[in-house]
Design goal:
Blueprint lengths: L19 E3 L2 H9 L8 E6 L5 H13 L2 E6 L19 H10 L4 E3 L3 H4 L19 H4 L3 H16 L3 E5 L3 H13 L5 E5 L19 H19 L4 H15 L3 E10 L14 E11 L2 E11 L10
Parallel strand pairs: 1-4, 2-3, 2-5, 3-4, 5-6
Antiparallel strand pairs: 7-8, 8-9
């Protein structure tokens, strides 16, 4: 498990007559209790900061669904392995608060690690189950245990009616929905579409790590997904072949996985008994030292057969 310490930070100046900032659980509770009586419905947008236009779209979606919007900004050490980029994960709290103010957020909860985990790493965590062990879970053991644990804590602290997450982290979204269902948590989970730059690259806080040349190389991920989706009528084998062709021809990327799964991620869409219809095509790759993920919805045609194994 990652070290639970975190770098120092500065909030800076935020110009807003409306935005409130809570850094402790007590401040959060007070702010929620003192909100206007007309702000009955509460929406939560959990983030790790380094906000961009993709996060802005989540905040806008939350505003459409609730009278009171809470954004959390917390770089959660539980979801980072010791070898991962916790210490260098981008932190820009003053900029994040400014973006929240611009998009009508009512309250930002920005705790330090000691506030979220006052006794150190928790002994009781949320186990992600079998879907948490594949794809990102296989590449990043323990990652989803950390994600679900912190999301469960935030949902309990905020008591949100609605929580909004991006589809770019599709496996995370699926697992959070399953956690809410299995644990009977009284919150609606909303998935918002992935936001992309005009050239197709999915917005990510980690994109800022990419050099100009690496950013061009990273475009192969979205191209592969789009080629795979276009090959949908050819069935699962055709979808994966089309996407693999793009990735195989790309320079400067190291593919971790390319997978075609049922929309709930429980089933390999290549299986002989997998039905045609809606599925999800997912990819993860390293571009230089930066690990990127992306996915798209696809419709699998009736040519659904396992490719021949030589």
């Amino acid at each position: 498990m990652a070290d639970l310490s975190e770098p120092s930070r500065s909030i800076g100046r935020v110009e807003s007559d409306k935005l409130r900032i809570a850094s402790t659980r007590a401040e959060l509770s007070t702010a929620l209790a003192s909100r206007s009586a007309t702000a009955a419905t509460v929406a939560l947008v959990p983030t790790m900061g380094a906000l961009h236009d993709g996060h802005a779209a989540l905040l806008d979606e939350a505003r459409r669904r609730a009278e009171f919007v809470v954004a959390s900004i917390f770089v959660n050490p539980l979801q980072f392995a010791p070898t991962e980029d916790l210490s260098r994960y981008p932190r820009a709290l003053a900029d994040d608060l400014a973006l929240c103010a611009q998009h009508g957020v009512d309250l930002v909860f920005a705790p330090v690690v000691e506030e979220m985990y006052p006794d150190g790493a928790p002994e009781v965590t949320v186990e992600p189950g079998r879907v948490g062990a594949i794809l990102e879970g296989a590449s990043r053991p323990g990652h989803f245990r950390g994600v679900l644990t912190v999301v469960a804590k935030l949902l309990n602290l905020v008591r949100a009616d609605v929580a909004v997450f991006g589809e770019k982290d599709y496996q995370q979204l699926v697992l959070i929905r399953r956690m809410v269902q299995d644990l009977s948590l009284p919150v609606e989970i909303v998935g918002a579409p992935t936001v992309r730059d005009p050239d197709g690259l999915a917005l990510s806080s980690r994109n800022r790590y990419l050099s100009p040349e690496q950013r061009v190389a990273a475009l192969a991920l979205s191209r592969a997904l789009l080629q795979g989706r276009a090959a949908g009528p050819a069935g699962a084998a055709g979808i994966l072949a089309a996407a693999n062709d793009v990735l195989a021809a790309a320079q400067g990327i190291d593919v971790d996985y390319l997978a075609l799964r049922s929309t709930d991620l429980t089933t390999d869409a290549r299986a002989p008994d997998a039905p045609a219809g809606e599925a999800r095509l997912l990819v993860a790759a390293r571009v230089g030292t930066t690990r990127l993920i992306d996915n798209v919805a696809v419709t699998v045609g009736s040519g659904n057969e396992l490719p021949a194994v030589s």
